[in-house]
Amino acid sequence: MVSWSALGRSFGTNLFKNNVKTPFIIQNVNFSVGKTLNAGHGQKTMALQPSRWQWHKFKDMFHYYVMIGLIPVGAIIFYTNVFIGPAQLAPIPEGYEPKHWEYHRHPITRFIARYIHNNPQQEYEKFMHYIDEEAQKAKLRALEKEVHSKMAERQDYQAYYYRPMVNKYHRIEKQAGDEVYERIGDDFKE
Prior knowledge:
Transmembrane segments: 62-84
Strand order of the largest sheet: 1-2
Keywords: Electron transport, Membrane, Mitochondrion, Mitochondrion inner membrane, Respiratory chain, Transit peptide, Transmembrane, Transmembrane helix, Transport
Family: Belongs to the complex I NDUFB5 subunit family.
Pfam families: NDUF_B5
Number of strands: 2
Subunit structure: Complex I is composed of 45 different subunits.
Shape: flat
Strand content: under 5%
Structural class: mainly alpha
Number of helices: 5
Oligomer: single chain
């Protein structure tokens, strides 16, 4: 499909080029397709015109994606509609629980429900988990607000804002200070 437009362009230009030069005779009648050339006399000018490269590239890409995408998808849709067809409603046997994709009528919709989308029960459970998490966060925010209000009411100490210190860096500083003290001693003068 991509090369058809290029072939059509070259074929069409070659067809007219060959016929323009010479008139032809059919049943003793002269037919002239175009004006004969002047054998090189006259001005040699070339008409300036915008490039058609972008248009030809667009056509080629359009034909390519039609061949790659629309035709196979159209063939699959045609096959499923003609040879498989919609599901028929039938009574459910005893002891059988239908799967979630079996409730859809069209085969393509059943395929999408089975292999692409999640189970509706799974979606419901995920949503309920989200609601539970938000409820837990709301409870924690309410408790934190209550603690703040009690601290403000009683003018309590700042224990709620206490952040424990990491002693690792204090030990490193103390060790560096001890090393300097051992090297220099008590007699340090500035």
